[in-house]
Amino acid sequence: MLKGILSISGHSGLFKMVAESKNNIIVESITTKKRMPAYSTSKISSLEDIAIFTATGEVPLKDVLKRIFELENGGIAPIAPDLSDSGYKSYFEKVLPEYDKERVYLSDIKKVFVWYNLLHENDLLKFEEEVSEDQKPEVIESETNKEIGNTLSS
């Protein structure tokens, strides 16, 4: 879901990587669709690699976004410019009660909600369950299907 979605320090919004060259990558804004180069001197983070600190370890950003999605029944996160700092923190605590209050800063919390809404508005929140081999449905072939398959492959 978050593969290829990037955050670039010094630039607002989120980006998709479009192309690579020797000294930079070309990215496209997910909101404006404008392209620009991002250089190796910029701090570029893939959302797929980001995790939130908790009391017991880390929770991948993908899981945090999914919790917000479930809490909001698929809607956008109710953040507003006039929301107080304590409002952000209490809402985030509903999403991730075990988050590490010492290492997760208010700016991180705000960024998670902004990213969630950007991804939601651009229809990039896809939470398909990954199916493991033992969870895949078993295909049972009838004798007729086997005969048809054998006839077609001959």
Describe this structure in words.
- By secondary structure, this protein is an alpha+beta fold.
- It folds into 2 domains: 5-46, SH3 type barrels, CATH 2.30.30; 50-121, Arc Repressor Mutant, subunit A.
- It has helices spanning 61-71, 85-95, 106-121, 143-153; strands at 5-8, 15-20, 24-29, 35-39, 44-46, 51-54, 57-60.
- Strands 4-3-2-1-5 form a 5-stranded antiparallel sheet, with no helix packed on it. A two-stranded antiparallel ribbon has the order 6-7.
- A hairpin with a 2-residue loop joins strand 6 and strand 7 (57-60).
Question: What's the shape?
Answer: globular
What is the CATH-assigned architecture of the largest domain? Orthogonal Bundle
What's the alpha carbon Rg, rounded to whole Å? 21 Å
Uncertain stretches: 130-154
Content of β-strand: 15-25%
Number of domains: 2
Query: CA-to-CA gap between the ends?
Result: 41 Å
Largest sheet: 5 strands, antiparallel
Average of per-residue pLDDT values:
83
Annotation field: number of helices? 4
What is the N-to-C succession of helices and strands? EEEEEEEHHHH
Estimate percent helicity.
Answer: 25-40%
- The largest beta-sheet arranges its strands as 4-3-2-1-5
State the CATH class of the largest domain: Mainly Alpha
**CATH fold-level name of the largest domain:** Arc Repressor Mutant, subunit A
Determine the structural class based on helices, strands and strand pairing: alpha+beta
Number of strands: 7
